[in-house]
Amino acid sequence: GINAEYGKQWYQRRVRGHNMSLFVLLFLCSSVFAKEDWKAILGYEECPADKAELESWTNDIPWFVDVLGLNEKPKPLKEICEDYECPKVEEKKSKKCGYATRTLLSANWVGTDMKNLDDDWREDFTAAFRRLFEYISGANEEEEKIKMTVPVLHRYEMEDEDDIDEDKVGKLYFYLPEEHQKSPPKPTNKNVFIEKLEEMTVVSRTFGEVGAMDKDDYEDQFEKLYEVAAENADEDVDEDVGWVASYTRPKIGRQRQEVMFVVKK
Questions:
Q1: 27 CB contacts (<8 Å, ≥6 apart)?
Q2: What's the CA gap between 216 and 193, in Å, rounded?
Q3: C-alpha dihedral sign at 146, 202, 254, 79
Q4: How high does pLDDT run on average in the chain?
């Protein structure tokens, strides 16, 4: 009767209202992510050809792509370092487009070796990460829990500028928070060590693919970095050693990885 018809109309109005609210939310979220500035995200001015390619497939990213971690726009460094302690750096002006230049100030890091970089690369990386995580979780002489920092720093010997030497030992590092810089707790695991990395100026490129923990991806990025910094801008870099800075948890939300070469003094 009348009550049934009224109930039906009320329900339809509620559904239309919810749909409109959802549409507005999707539109607003999509607009926010689409309008992010590439220079602010990357930390440098991308070269025109590369920027055009990036924007061609990222201009209209809907909000749920970002939430699911499928957005290949890297997570902004400023946003990351608001949540986690990052090492002290001094930003420098790059000679040309396509890469950033910064100086990493001298600091203590906790490190361990990665010995199998061929078929067991991912497995050995995971084992190395676990050793470092155990250290900050209390596997040290003071049994002290140390807060997680970023980035996780990888060091690789290179056969050439775009080829990681699988026969050489790599290293993995966690940055030690400021409160532990003067007297870091001694590791209880003999395969974990404290190392002071001296001040170094690096050139870097940023990428944000979800499957970023991949050696082939790193080598592709090293090749591009060498092209824009060493070949195009005449930066005198040490291509015998490649560095990777991993700022985010793999496959969880937006990613940020950076490949780096040290500029020779």
A1: none
A2: 28
A3: positive
A4: 84
Tokens matching residue 52: 């055009």
The whole-angstrom separation of Cα 95 and Cα 100 is: 9
Q: Which burial class, exposed, middle or buried, applies to 71 when counting CB atoms under 10 A from its CB (0-12, 13-18, 19+)?
A: buried
Q: Most distant CA pair in the chain: distance in Å?
A: 87
For residue 182, give the DSSP letter. S
What is the Cα–Cα distance from 221 to 73, expressed in whole angstroms? 15
Question: pLDDT tens for residues 129-178?
Answer: 999 999 999 999 999 999 999 999 999 999 999 999 988 889 999 999 99
| CA 251/CA 61 separation, integer angstroms | 18
Burial annotation 125-144 (CB, 10 A radius, 16+ → b, else e): bebbbebbeebbeebbeeee
